[in-house]
Specification:
The complex is a heterotrimer. By secondary structure, chain A is of the alpha+beta class. Chain A folds into two domains: about 1-75, Roll (Ubiquitin-like (UB roll)); about 90-155, Orthogonal Bundle (DNA polymerase, domain 1). Chain A is built from five helices and five strands; from the N terminus they run ββαβββαααα. In chain A, strand 1 and strand 2 form a beta hairpin. In chain A, about 65% of the residues are buried. In chain B, strands 4-5-10-6-7 form a five-stranded antiparallel sheet. In chain B, strands 11-12-13-14 form a four-stranded antiparallel sheet. Chain C folds into three domains: about 60-175 and about 235-285 and about 290-325, Aldehyde Oxidoreductase, domain 3 (Alpha-Beta Complex); about 325-505 and about 665-815, Aldehyde oxidase/xanthine dehydrogenase, molybdopterin binding domain (Aldehyde Oxidoreductase, domain 4); about 520-665, Aldehyde Oxidoreductase, domain 4, CATH 3.30.365. The chains are: A alpha+beta, B alpha+beta, C alpha+beta. At the A-C interface, helix 2, helix 3, helix 4 and helix 5 of A face helix 1 and helix 19 of C.
Chain lengths: ~160, ~290, ~800
């Protein structure tokens, strides 16, 4: 079954026919070719599919595309203009080696952004719990935590 | 792991939703937050003939004060409950429990009503609805009705809701003065389903327990109250030995199973420990007023 | 009547030692924060050059590939642990609109040889039985998840619809699920032609173990059961296969760790010319050993694209990853340790029973796991009398092959935990019993009692550094004070020596012809001084684009940003063996250093000729080729490149062009580390929190210390996963119970403690550049560090008791005292 949906993604408006059983992650990747959002589990357990929906992080493998009609989405592609001009959070991740294979990274960055938006000066414990919905298999989280601590400093400094 | 095909209706009103559900008895499922349903679709563990999407129905997501208590609309997201001032003042046990519900991204989407209607015994809201003697409002083809929480959870993942009924709102009646709460959950990782969870409220009259309620999650096919343990407590002075006794009694009243995360025996043991801790915490808070 | 397994026993020899002078230990420097470098790029904590595009989602994971006319593949997988296929009816699937093709095993076996490993001769005593592993099951399936049919359709949603419509008539057979039952006579056989369920049997003997045990004051025994778990990288496997009629060839993109091996095996299995197959490893989201195999899915898609003549895509979902790929580290060890009252270790007996599941795996075979365990178990200790037995046992479960550490985790868990048991028995502190028996740097080089040549190591020094970093004596006071308050803290040590690289002589001795221990690098300099580096290793998160560029910059004087790094494309890179086994820094790095050396030598010849000096008078300084001590007399790298490549102003006996290759037969260096964990245990629930975690590491000369620390941290998290969370479980019928990330628990950020790292740098005497590998060690040491800490925490309540099984869930911990 198809449903026509109107959505705004990374500031751009789209009108598309979505198969009603297509999950949002597949819609973003296959229909809109925004392949930075990854799928890691299908159960909302790993966070690789994290996107921002109407200002809040959600797991796009557990949402139907048909269900976001009229809403606004930001994916990893939407938070900077590209690899040459990174968001301060992304810069911090480069500075402190917050990634290795990069598969969990887009979801991790968006969750970090949401965390720092709601809690600009988190303790280490708050960071660790704040991103506990994003699994990483490569880094052991050690440098991800340091990257987020650095990102918090940079965001505070830029205010 | 992609969902099977289904028909889809985006309801704009409760009546439209009820009507759609009525057309496909036993085959239609409600889509609210979808955080429990969509994984089941992804794994093809559910093959609904139709999904009725209620996310666009206005006015069913509010959290409002009501006569000392609170009314929570079915579509209120877990996160809204977590940050609600009203709930923090009147039912801080919900605020504390909210942090255990999945992760932030799940809480941003999953709904209070959806969780209660899904009735997973290891989830936080069903056991708290039971603890707080919630009044669950439902609407169906025959009209609206109120189902007390005690009658709502019938068996594993099954509730008293009819095929074409929708849970619309949950009313939490006011708690008496001098009531304290305790919430103890043990899960493998933060956000996982509880291996066992115990929630308790204690109302004191001086140092005597005027009333006590205990509910347990993850240790039965449904969330459970512990009436025997509650009876042990009423009218007695609050002390450690009594709480220990109540914990043992509650453990006897639980009905856990084995699964990949823990055995029934261990879960039963957890109930006795967590009950004691929850009661201790509740009595301390009650004494502080 | 099947022939008995070949049994060739050769005298064990210590591996050939290169007689290089042993370099003195560089002063040990504990590093709590990063020291930013002062010298050249080799050794500098340079930021990774590849990171920006991953951060913005500009990546080439197979999942995101779209080719014109592409179709999707889904697989029907067996729901039974052991069953005969009486019949398969695919007609309903084929009739579904959108389904294009269905392939069953009966057809596939005619055109695709089964995966098989032969292992006949070895310097290790190895008694091995091969078996056939078809890409798609023919007549019989041997584990839940085995592929039974492949459906090709317009998209993955429709392909799965097609899978649901295939009708199979099954005849379930009895399944053998427990490996110790599988060893009993008269039970179910996984492979009938074997006559039993033993894939491999080996005995490793050194010294006189019975004599040693007779002299013991104390003998302690234990049964140590590890937990079957798996690599579970965040990106599962994925394949796109495309037959290109115009080229009359096939390109296969696959999420792999060994693209060249995959290409060779596709060619052999399909009897298709290898030079017309191109395998490309694009961005890969983690592998950890899982993706170092040739997989049925790669073969099935290659076969199908030749038929269908359209690009085909298969992306593994998490359920397939958890039960249809491979498992790991499912070993039980029966161990006995003989000690004197003063703590001296006299002898060790171990029997490793590895549950390897239903089939072989290429190229390692799953039997590698228990065999490695038996060889590695004496660890960094002075043990001269051992009997170590290894059994690889087949069961009707997912094949259990290699994953970060391979065998070392089982060895480590056994040795470190039984050592603490012995210490408790004789009333000795665990740090002291280790200091008594552990080797120190001046003891090396030495051949271990199991025949492993340890080139250099600093086990005692690493132990002492870790004890200092964790503040061991102060902790004991803190622990005592906490106990008085009813809090139970514990501390646990895990000291290890780690085989890295698995080099050329290792595989020669092993006799396993399916792997060879070399790797390759090719450098080409363009007229403007830019460098293109292609390699045979395969980075999937380890930072090679940066680390190798550091080596090139160090070797030829260019800047790191002047290097373009290409890997993974078999058409563009020299033959190599990919990335696994802590090998790339040594085997790949060594090849890069040697190739750079050739480039530098030619640059010096050309520059010397043009500047009319002798090549010996030249050095690299500040990006120039300069006459030593004469800063004014120099040529930039660019000027030399122009001259060599563009204008060909080269000496008469030199060719134009500035490029070089090197194929490096890598050695097998040993790294060492010590892990110490501090935990708090809630005795009422068994819930355990890791409070502090320290790792000291000696991996020779480090190319990039930040990358080293990243590898340690990632390894530790996986070690914690094994220790406390991850467990693949089956019911008695062989049905797997853990098929999603809700059942299979990967540690989250909140489950992993903050860590502290210390480094020692003993330049490796047997490798180019003095480099050692280190990628796996982080994952090997944690389980016994944590087990020892928990046992230590609970000792006041019920005595020191070993924890005989992993993972140490709250329930398992609670059972120690209840």
């Amino acid at each position: 079954m198809k449903k026509t949906i109107q959505i705004t993604v990374n500031g751009k408006s789209y009108s598309r026919d979505a198969d009603t059983r297509q999950v949002l992650a597949d819609f973003l990747r296959d229909e809109l070719r925004l392949t930075g959002t990854h799928i890691g589990c299908g159960t909302g357990s790993c966070g690789a599919c994290t996107v921002v929906l109407d200002g809040r992080t959600v797991k796009s493998c557990c949402i139907l595309a048909a269900d976001v009609d009229g809403q606004e989405i930001t994916t990893i592609e939407g938070i900077s203009t590209g690899a040459q001009q990174l968001h301060p959070i992304q810069e911090a991740f480069v500075e402190f080696q917050g990634l290795q294979c990069g598969y969990c990274t887009p979801g991790m960055v968006l969750s970090a952004m949401q965390l720092l938006k709601e809690n600009p000066n988190p303790s280490e414990d708050e960071i660790r719990h704040g991103i506990s919905g994003n699994l990483c298999r490569c880094t052991g989280y050690h440098f991800i935590v340091k990257s987020i601590q650095e990102a918090a400093k940079r965001l505070q400094a830029s205010k | 792991m992609k969902p099977p095909a289904f028909d889809y209706v985006c309801a704009r009103s409760l009546d439209e939703a009820i009507d759609a559900l009525g057309r496909r008895p036993g085959e239609a499922k409600i889509l609210a937050g979808g955080q429990s349903l969509t994984p089941m679709l992804n794994f093809r563990l559910a093959h609904p003939g139709m999904l009725v999407d209620i996310n666009r129905i206005p006015g069913i997501d509010a959290i409002r004060d009501d006569d000392g208590g609170v009314r929570i609309g079915t579509l209120a997201r877990h996160r809204a409950i977590e940050v609600s001032d009203s709930i923090r003042k009147k039912f801080p046990i919900l605020t504390a429990a909210a942090a255990h519900v999945g992760h932030l991204a799940i809480r941003n989407r999953g709904t209070f009503g959806g969780s209660i209607a899904h009735a997973d015994p290891a989830a936080e809201w069903p056991m708290l609805a039971l603890l707080l003697d919630a009044q669950i409002e439902a609407k169906g083809p025959q009209g609206a009705r109120t189902i007390p929480a005690r009658e709502f959870f019938t068996t594993f993942l099954t509730t008293a809701l009819g095929d074409a009924e929708i849970l619309t709102e949950v009313k939490l009646p006011a708690l008496p003065a001098k009531t304290g709460w305790g919430f103890e959950e043990l899960s493998r990782r933060p956000g996982d389903f509880a291996l066992a969870a115990v929630a308790a409220i204690v109302t004191l009259d001086g140092k005597t327990i005027k009333d006590a309620r205990i509910s347990m999650g993850g240790v039965g096919g449904t969330p459970l109250r512990a009436p025997g343990a509650e009876a042990l407590l009423r009218g007695k002075p609050a002390d450690a030995a009594l709480f220990e006794q109540a914990g043992k009694k509650a453990a006897e009243e639980s009905d856990p199973s084995n699964d990949v995360h823990a055995t029934a025996d261990y879960r039963r043991h957890l109930v006795s420990v967590l009950t004691r801790r929850a009661l201790t915490s509740a009595a301390e808070k009650a004494a502080q007023g | 009547m099947s022939p008995p397994a070949l049994r060739i026993r050769c005298a064990r020899q210590a591996m050939a030692a290169r007689s290089l002078p042993f370099s003195p230990l560089i002063a040990a420097r504990p590093q709590k924060e990063f020291e930013m470098p002062t010298a050249g790029p080799f050794g500098a904590a340079v930021k990774r050059v590849e990171d920006p595009r991953f951060l913005v989602g500009q990546t080439s994971f197979v999942e995101g590939m779209v080719l014109p006319n592409m179709l999707s593949v889904a697989f029907l997988r067996s729901p039974y642990a052991h069953a005969k296929i009486r019949s398969i009816d695919v007609s309903k699937a084929l009739a579904l609109p959108g389904v294009v093709r269905v392939l069953t095993g009966e057809e596939a076996i005619k055109r695709c040889k089964p995966i098989r490993v032969e292992w006949k001769e070895s310097k290790f005593e190895v008694d091995f039985k091969p078996c056939d592993y078809p890409a798609i099951a023919v007549e019989r399936t041997r584990h839940v998840g085995e592929i039974v049919a492949a459906v090709v359709a317009e998209n993955r949603y429709l392909a799965e619809d097609g899978v649901e419509l295939i009708e199979v008539e099954w005849e379930p057979l009895p399944a053998v699920v427990d490996p110790e039952k599988a060893l009993e006579k008269g039970g179910t056989l996984v492979h009938e032609e074997w006559g039993d369920n033993v894939m491999l049997h080996s005995h490793i003997r050194g010294g006189d173990v019975e004599g040693a045990f007779r002299q013991a004051d104390v003998v302690v025994k234990g049964r140590f059961a590890m937990n079957r778990h798996c690599a579970a990288p965040m990106e599962g496997r994925a394949v796109v296969a495309n037959y290109d009629a115009a080229q009359n060839g096939m390109t296969v993109w696959t999420s792999t760790q060994m693209p060249h091996m995959v290409r060779t095996k596709i060619a052999e299995a399909l009897d298709y010319p290898e030079h017309r197959i191109r395998v490309i490893g694009p961005d890969v989201g983690g592998g950890f050993g899982l993706k170092c195999h040739i997989f049925p899915e790669e073969l099935a898609l290659s076969l199908l694209t030749l038929d269908v003549k359209r690009p085909l895509k298969w992306v593994e979902d998490r359920r397939e990853n958890l039960y249809g790929s491979y498992h790991a580290k499912d070993d039980i060890c029966y161990a006995e340790l003989a000690v004197k009252n003063d703590g001296t270790i006299l002898g060790l007996k171990t029997k490793f029973i590895g549950d390897v599941g239903a089939y072989t795996s290429y190229p390692w075979t799953p039997s590698f796991e228990p065999l490695q365990a038996a060889m590695a178990v004496p660890g960094p200790y002075k043990i001269h009398h051992v009997h170590c037995e290894a059994l690889a046992v087949a069961t009707n479960k997912t094949t259990s092959s290699v994953y970060r550490g391979v065998g070392l985790p089982a060895a480590q868990y056994t040795m470190e935990h039984i050592l603490d048991l012995a210490a408790a028995k004789i009333g000795m502190d665990p740090a002291e019993i280790r200091r008594k028996n552990i080797m120190k740097s001046s003891d090396f080089p030495v051949t271990s009692v199991t025949g492993l040549y340890y080139d250099s190591a600093t086990p005692l020094e690493s132990l002492d550094m870790a004890l200092e970093m964790i503040k061991y004596p102060e902790f004991r006071k803190e622990q005592e004070a906490a106990r008085k308050q009813g809090k139970y803290l514990g501390i646990g040590i895990s000291a290890m020596i780690e085989m890295t690289t698995f080099g050329f002589e290792y595989w020669r001795a092993a006799g396993l012809k399916s792997v060879t221990g070399y790797d390759s690098a090719h450098l080409r300099v363009d007229p403007n001084g830019g460098v293109t580096l292609t390699v045979g290793t395969f980075n999937h998160g380890q930072g090679h684009p940066t680390a190798y560029a550091q080596l090139v910059a160090d070797g030829i004087g260019c800047k790191i940003e002047d290097v373009t790094f290409i890997q993974g494309d078999t058409q563009m890179t020299p033959y190599g063996w990919g990335t696994w086994g802590s090998r790339s820094a040594v085997a790949g790095g060594g090849a890069v250093i040697k190739a750079s050396e050739k480039i530098r030598e030619k640059m010096f010849r050309v520059a010397a000729n043009l500047m009319e000096v002798s090549a010996q008078d030249l050095e690299l300084k500040d990006g120039k080729v300069q006459v030593k001590g004469v800063p004014g007399k120099s040529m930039t790298i660019r000027e030399v490149a122009q001259a060599t490549v563009y204008t060909a102003d080269v000496p008469d006996d030199d060719e134009p062009g500035l490029e070089a290759s090197y194929y490096y037969k890598a050695p097998t260096p040993y790294a060492n580390s010590t892990h110490i964990a501090v935990v708090e245990v809630d005795p009422e629930t068994g819930y355990t929190k890791i409070l502090r975690y320290v790792v000291t590491e000696d991996c020779g000369r480090m190319i990039n210390p930040m990358i080293v620390d990243g590898q340690i941290a990632g390894g530790v998290a996986q070690g914690i996963g094994q220790a406390m969370f991850e467990h693949h479980q089956f019911d008695e019928s062989g049905q797997i119970l853990t098929t999603s990330l809700m059942d299979y628990l990967i540690p989250s950020c909140a489950d992993v403690p903050p860590m502290q790292f210390g480094h020692l740098e003993t330049p490796c005497p047997i490798s180019v550049g003095g480099i050692k590998g280190m990628g796996e060690g982080g994952a090997v040491a944690p389980p016994p560090a944590i087990a020892n800490a928990i046992a230590d925490a609970l000792a006041p309540l019920a005595g020191w008791k070993p924890i005989g099984r992993l993972p140490m869930s709250p329930e398992v911990v609670r059972r120690q005292i209840a």
